[in-house]
Amino acid sequence: MADDHTVVRHGLKQILAEEFKRAFFGEARNAQEALELIGKEPWDIVILDITMPGRSGLEVMREIKKLRPRLPVLVLSIHPENQFAVRVLKLGAAGYMTKESAAEELIGAVKKVLAGGRYVSTSLAEVLATNLCSNGVRSPQDLLSDREFQVLRLIASGRIVSEIACELALSVKTISTYRSRILEKMGLRNNAELMHYAVQHQLVEVIPGKY
Predict the structure, then answer these.
(1) What's the pTM?
(2) 176/209 Cα distance (integer angstroms)
(3) Which among 24, 76, 77, 119 could disulfide-bond with 109, CB atoms 3.0 to 4.6 Å apart, if both were Cys?
(4) 135 alpha-carbon distance from chain centroid
(5) For the domain that residue 146 is a member of, what is the CATH number?
(6) Does residue 164 form part of some domain?
(7) Is the pLDDT of residue 113 over 90?
(8) Domain finish residue from 132, 153, 182
């Protein structure tokens, strides 16, 4: 279980331990700890938070698939399905759930994934079906790479370029390049339009009074 909040990890452990009596649980607070644990033990499943300190959960997903291609990953995130679900499924995740899901739903999802299946909610299944029937029409954010999408969300949350560079351990010049690519790909002119788009499409959480 990879999540930076101790109370979340303990809650997950309590829920799952009641159903899987003989299970052994490993806990990671960040991407580095998660990847180290995954490399050391033959786990049956990873429950991964998509937003942890340091590296993006999308990057962690990619690394997990390099280390253990057949290891199923169930993403459990605070973010609504329309923000990350399609991206993580394309990267090979076995399922996507929000942290608002009921305990019974979590247990059912884990059982399905352990049995070799994939778990998506009814609402997410409708989104995926719509995408298949859209004749290849993609939304602007779908044109972005995972890193560009990450930078978009950070800009939209109000971070300045230097802050983003520090958080992602990249140069200011690199972040500025990503910003230019994002604006070009999405047909936007400035940060204000980018922020408006992100809020309108629920790509970031809205802080009351900020927008």
Answers:
(1) 0.77
(2) 27
(3) 119
(4) 26
(5) 1.10.10.10
(6) yes
(7) yes
(8) 132
